[in-house]
Structure formats: structure tokens, C-alpha cells
Fold GMP synthase [glutamine-hydrolyzing].
Amino acid sequence: MILVLDFGGQYAQLIARRVREARVYSELIPYDTPVEEILAREPEGIILSGGPNSVYGEGAPRVDRRLFELGTPALGICYGMQLMALEMGGKVEPVEVREYGRSDLRVKEHGLLFAGLPDEQKAWTSHGDAVLAPPEGFRVTAETPSIPIVAFEEPEKRFFGVQFHPEVRHSEYGMDVLKNFLFEVCGCAPDWTPVNIITDAVEKVREQVGDRRAIIGLSGGVDSATAAMLVHRAIGDNLTAVFVDHGLLRQNEAEQVVEAFGKNSDVPLVHVDASERFLRKLAGVDDPEAKRKIIGEEFIRTFEEEAGKIAENATFLVQGTLYSDVIESGTRDAAKIKSHHNVGGLPEIMDLDLVEPLRSLFKDEVRVVAAELGMPERMVWRQPFPGPGLAIRIIGDVTRERLEILRKADFVLQDEIRNAGLYRDLWQSFAVLPAIHSVGVMGDARTYAYPVMIRAVTSDDAMTADWARLPYDLLERISNRIINEVPGVNRVALDITSKPPGTIEWE
Ligand code: XMP
């Protein structure tokens, strides 16, 4: 197992993910996790992530020096490399020419980390500081035109540092560098798969919940359904699923979810129609963060009421929270982007304790687990749908009328995407309703109506995304059908923004 110390870098979670892709279990932990705790987990290697700080900056995160005396191999990436250099007696300074993006890396000495890799490679860098002098005993193994020390290693102690980001796909041989560290340096065996977490998660849930009762908020997506099946394995009939219809779902979605879940699982299901109460609370609210807070809070309050009805001792709420939800809502060391309703949007005081068996997994890993648990393909491959639903795809006020327009437009879009056989290739495809009108002409008459925005993205894990290059003829069909079939819409536009700089959702 590899522990990744999180110094707050945007790519920190990607490191853990790449290690897991190499079939070695890995977890991201706060950089100041006590050394005793790290030792107790017996990692085969430690990776120090990048981070937004300068090692000399005020309050810059540092590590306990004893970390370098454990005899465990360590790899420092970017900030992690600079920190390693500093702690071991090297010198770090701001660089004259900052490097952001792709740079030409030249391997000077292959050593262990670059073993078997080409001399020249493209590497992704993003930093303002660099190592000026390596610590004693360290050999410089790579350079770029502007940075003379882009990688170093101390093969005896098995300490390594790279200034570039091997975890990012743009680093041509990044994955090979990581694999060299895992297999050649740490001696890890590539035998982990996400399926391994099933037994572990079942055991942990059993321990946490004991013989008390739990409810799970079902959304219809693969995450909560998988969480339900896992927890059902752990506590059997002490789990009840509650499906809260907040009135912000897509066309026919509530019926489909209830039917599919009923068919495919033995977990008893309670269907609550709470649309009135959600829409009342959302009336007149147009700030995205406020919408999320309201929805997060209403979810919890509805669950609390239902839990009370199901059984007095239902004291746990199971959620299908994923790793990306946790990271994006801002960990202590990473910046907050938006408060996903099931993490940052939760009210401070709750009667229910949370059970989140998928909290350390990425979406594609959950899909592997779901398939292993016997979930039907249509559910396994459902595109993600945000908990706050259409409320964060309607810019501005969420009204019944605007919900109806978006539902119809979204239905057409999904229908065409499925017919074109593209549903599974896209991470998400959906329609957005902006809060503006534009002038058009239909049947010789002037119209003044809403535009609908089409958003379709490809992604591995929602942390980054690219806008999908949909075929023109498909776009044409979508546009024609939306304008013809959805009253209140007179224009269709396409969103061609990647993430970053955009986010996938508009709010
Ligand atoms: P963004 O918009 O941050 O979205 O690029 C990343 C992924 O998360 C989903 N998303 C949410 N899911 N509650 C959720 O359950 C939320 O508040 C929320 N906001 C965004 C989004 O659909 C995408 O898959």
C-alpha cells in the first residue's frame, strides 16, 4: 500500500488514482498525519504531493522529519520534492522563468526512476520554485532547458524527487515513472482491484452500524445503488432505502428509479414525494451555493423524518459519496470549488450519523464494484446526475414552468444521444436553461423565448473534462427537435468549454 501525503495540490488525488490504476492500493492522507499512524499502516512507499505553497512561505506545510527516518521509500512530487530537498539539506529557490505546462525533459542518468525510459520526454510542470542544490548524496537525474534539477534520487535511502507531475496524462512517461517507483523501488505487487474493497467495506460497515438500523438516500445513480447493495450485504434487513423525489428530477426518472431498484435489489424501498417542500424552499433563490445548501438541508430533514417513521433506532444515513465529491467540496488542504450537496452542503447539526462506504473511490472504480455486485449494465453505466438535480441546471429561479421546459429539452437530448450510440462514451450529456430570452422568428411571427444550452463532456473522473465533439448531424437533430418539441424555447446553443476553466455543471 502506498500513502500519498496531501499538501493541497490540485492533482494530489490523481496520484492516488494513478497508483491504483497500476493495481496498487493507495490513499491520500493529510500531510500532517502523525508519523506513528503512518508507520502503523505499514506503507510500502510514501508519496509527497504537490501543493500551492512555497516551502519558504509563511505557514507553508512541513513534514515531521522522522518521516525520512522510517526506512520507507519516498517520492516527492513538485512541492513534495522541494520539501524533501529542504529537509535533507538541499537548497530551494524561486525560479526566474516560471514553468507552467509542457516542458522538454532530458534524462541525464536513468537511475531507478527513469529505468527503461527514453532520454527525451515531454513532462507537465507547474511551479514557481525549484531545487537549486540537491541534498548530499542525491544525484541529479533529469533537467529541462530552464530548470537544471528536475529530478533527483538517493538510491541507497530510496528517496526520489520529480519537479514535474508524473500523475498528469500530459507527462508522456509519467505513468512509467510512477510504476518504476512502485515496482522497482517499493517492490509492490500489482494485485489490487477495486473489488478488493468489497470485503473490507462490508466489514467496516458492520463494525460501525452493529445491529442498529440505517437508511440510505437513493438517487437512482450508480453510487447510491452500489452503496445500498454493499451496506445490505453488511447489515441485511436493517437497511431501508428511501428515495426522496425532490421534484428536480428528469422526465419519468422517479418511476424508472423505483422500478429498476425494486427489480434488482432486496432492499426495501420507501418512495417519498417531497417536491412541494423543496420547491417552496427554493422559490426566489438564484444563488447556486444557496440552492445547494437548501437542497442539502432539506434532504437531511426529510431523511430524519423518514428514519423516525421507519424505526426509532434508525440512526445511520448511508450515502454514496465519492472521492471526487469530497475533494471538490474542499478538503482542509485543497481549495473549495463548490459545495457538493452531500458533503459541504450538509447542515451542521444532524440527528443521523453518516455511513459512506465509497468515500475513497472514484467513479470508474465504483462501476467495477457495481458490476461485481451484479448490478445490471444500464444502471452501472448511468451517467452521473447531481444530487441537486435540475435546480443547478436552471440558472436563476427554479419554477415549475422552467423545470418543465428543461425536462422536455433534456429528454430530447438524451434520446438523440442514446440513438446515436454515444451515451456510454460521454461522461455526462445534459441541457441547461439560462435565465435569458432571445428573439426568434417562427411561422412568420416574432418569438421571445429561452435558449437551451447543450453540454456534453468526456472525462475520467469529473476532476477534469473536455467538451465532446458531437457530430454536426446529431447536433442538428437535437436543435431541430428541441425547438419543435419544447414550447418556450426558440434557440439552441452548444457549450464548448473544458474543465478547467469551466466546471461540468453551470452552477
Ligand atoms: P462540476 O460541475 O463541479 O461537477 O465540474 C463535477 C461532477 O459532480 C457533479 N456535481 C454534483 N453532484 N451534488 C452532486 O451530487 C452536487 O452539488 C454537485 N455539483 C456537481 C456533476 O454533475 C459532475 O458529475
In short: DSSP finds 14 helices and 19 strands in the chain.
